[in-house]
Structures are given as C-alpha cells and as structure tokens.
Amino acid sequence: MITSPSSLRRSERSRRATLDAALELCTERGYGRVTVEAIAARAGVSKKTIYRWWPSKGAVLLEAFAEVFVNATPFVDTGDIDADLRTHVTGAVKLLSTPPYGPAYAGILTELHHDDVLGRAVREDVVGPRFEAAVGRMRRAQEQGQIPAGADLPLAVEMIYGPVYYRLVLRKPPQDEETVAALVAHVLRSLRAVPADPAVDAPAATGG
Q1: Annotated DNA-binding ranges (predicted)?
Q2: What domains does the chain contain, in order, with CATH numbers?
C-alpha cells in the first residue's frame, strides 16, 4: 500500500505531538511518573499509534531528547581544540541542566539498566555518534599538531564526558563555565604531557 502525502503529514503531526507531550509530562511529573497512557492522552493519539513507532516511553523520550541534544552540542572547528571542546561541553552541560532534557535523559540512563532495547538505542542513537564525532574532532586537532600523535583519543573523550555523566546521574550540581574550562584544560594537558623515556629512566646495567 502506497502512503499518501496527506497521511505522511498526519503521521508527522502525530509524531511531533507525541514527542512534545512526553517532554511536557516529564517536566510536570518527573520521568518516573510518565506513562504511555498519559503521553497518548496528552498528544491526542492512541496507545496503539505510540507502540507502532516506539517500544516504550523511554524510547519516546530518547527520540525527543536526541533531536535537541545533537543541535545543542555541535563539534565546531575554529582551529582551536581547547576553545572548541569548551564550547561543546558547555552546550552539553547547559542542556542537561535544563528541564525537561536533563531529567528525561537521567531517567533514560536509569531505565536502560533494565531495558536492553533502550540501552542499545542510547548507545546507537546518542552516545555512539557523539563519541565518534568527538574523537573525529580531536583527530583533526592531532593532525594539526595540537595534540601529540601518540595520544589515546577515545580515552580522552571518556575523560571529558565522564564528569558530565557523573554529575547528571548522581544529581550533583552541573559544571559552570569555569569548571568546564578546567576540565578541558586538564584533559588536554594530560594528552600533551611528554612521556618518560624508558632509556633514560632505566637503571644502568652493571657488569658482573
């Protein structure tokens, strides 16, 4: 059966209404009290429609979050990796400290431990692409000589994101711009540290 343009428009309107309703309810009630039934009622769609597009409320909220998160956390390339990482991390922190996005994502991160499908979606739709984009931006900086050739870029990205996730999941106060700057500076300083030369540090051989 070929879908008509009018039905596609209706589907998009329903999809948008569902995502908006889920975010509104998350703000009003908190993630744990949001239900698919409530989302359907607020959006003016049936539960059947929601389950045709998403397997759970977590999946609905993940799609709503991911759309905004990607646009709010670009990986710009001004030629200055320090400034660009500060821009990126500051954007992520601001979004994650703003309702409903921060509470929604924190709820998703909690629920994924009990929902393998949601966990895979988080990795494939949010964490994986952003992680690869971060490594790619740092690799360009490496090619420009701003980061040493032997630096472990995936580990560096985990060092940058780790404190952000730590504060979100434990509901600690988010980083301010000064703290973000210190975090980025610390990670990049660790990458630029000159490793010890084994030949110099090794004890001199003694004849026997």
Answers
A1: 35-54
A2: 8-55 (1.10.10.60), 62-192 (1.10.357.10)
